[in-house]
Amino acid sequence: MLKVSKSKLVLLAVTCVPLSSACNASKHKDAARRAEVVVALKQHLTASVTAWVAASHALQAAAPDGSAGWNVQTDAAAIAAMKKEWKNGRRAYELVEGAMAPLFPESDVATDSRYEDFLVREGSVADKYSFDGEGVVGMHAIERILWADTIPEAVVAYESALPGYTKAAFPTTAAEAADFKNKLVARLVKDTENLQAQLASIAPDIAFVYRGLLDLVREQVEKVDKTASGEEESRYAQSTLADLRSNLDGCEQAYAILRPWLREKSEGPAVDARITAAFAELRTLYGIESAMPSPPDQWSSLDPTPAALATPFGKLFAGTKHAADEKAPGSLVAQLRIAAKTLGLPEMP
Question: What are phi and psi of 164, to 5 degrees?
Fold first, then answer.
């Protein structure tokens, strides 16, 4: 047994009191910061979901009744207005996708699934009537109709090989136009309003939201790579790169809520500087265009050639892959994981 003299015990008792007080003060400060972050995260998520609901209502209001379906000339203004509101809603969701998808997975499936995902869930049964609120629904179902006359050939080639494929088209009758407005878009309005109500009833868990952000950064690689096969996400509007920028904006906005807390830690400013640099690197990479750059011929994400990686698409792929590589010291995911550990959040997967 270790023996300690009485004088040493007194000294230990005296020195431990201020250390204990400092520790308690730090815990209280962290608890206060956590409470502030939860409130700010809730406000951040609520603002975007509210904007999504508003855009869904505006899209429905802009939809023409179409006595004989949609006419490219006479309904041009209405179609343009619907496309604008679709993009507004799309951005609103992409800003908070990282948090909302894991928090409300059923809502994410109903509103953000791709065409082939619905066909798989339906057992490859064709959704022969595209304008109701059943089968293939959500943002991409509406997008597929709004841009039906300008869908890229690569997308048509990919989708036409899917079991259950039905060609995308504008409403051609009054009944189809009415169903698009009052069933398909109305379903999106209902789903976004339900999501808004669900969000209002919870206090988001910081660690859960943070893990969602990490997953979203990792998912950027898949969103880029699937362009080569016609499977990209916003494939009809050709706005997947805009989606990536919105995802990045949302990640930065969520991180900004945590940033003051992180910078209070002794190592926080250095971690923050690396995260800020990683965000800036991605922002430069994503540029200002909406459409993804064209993949080079015979693109392979498993074994890309130096020539393929030198193309705009190859650079985009390599950059997103680096950002998502947790083993790369300067990557965004690696630094976000360090930040989570610094804040005392549960170990990130």
Answer: 95, 5
At residue 82, the 3 state secondary structure works out as helix
| Predicted confidence (pLDDT) per residue in 219-278, tens digit | 999 999 999 999 999 999 999 999 999 999 999 999 999 999 999 999 999 999 999 999
Phi, psi of 69 (to 5 degrees): 85, -170
Strand partners, 67: 69
User: What Rg do the C-alpha atoms of the chain give, in angstroms?
Assistant: 25
Domain finish residue from 202, 224, 255 = 202
Residue entry with tokens 């790579």: 225
Buried b (16+ CB within 10 A) or exposed e, 72-91: eeebeebbebbbebbbbbbb
Is residue 198 located within the same domain as residue 211?
Answer: no
Residues 317-347: tens digit of each pLDDT:
999 999 999 999 889 999 999 999 999 998 8
**Distance between CA atoms of residues 204 and 208, nearest Å:** 8
Q: Convert the pLDDT of each residue in 24-42 to its tens digit.
A: 666 778 888 899 999 999 9
CA atoms within 13 A on the CB side of 316: 25
Whether residue 153 is found in the same domain as residue 218: no
19 lies in some domain: no
- Determine, yes or no, domain membership for 308: yes
Q: Say if residue 263 is in the same domain as residue 218.
A: yes
Quote the number of domains for the chain: 2
**Contact between residue 343 and residue 261 where contact means Cβ atoms under 8 Å apart:** yes
Q: What is the pTM of this model?
A: 0.89
Q: Scanning the structure block, which residue is given the tokens 């698409």?
A: 313
Tell me how far apart the alpha carbons of residues 177 and 188 are, in angstroms, rounded to a whole number: 16
- On whether both 320 and 336 belong to a single domain, the answer is yes
Q: What gap in Å lies between CA 131 and CA 175, rounded to an integer?
A: 9
Q: Which of helix, strand or coil describes residue 178?
A: helix
Residue type, 267: E
Asked if residue 279 belongs to a domain, the reply is: yes
Question: Cα–Cα distance between 33 and 29 in angstroms, integer?
Answer: 6
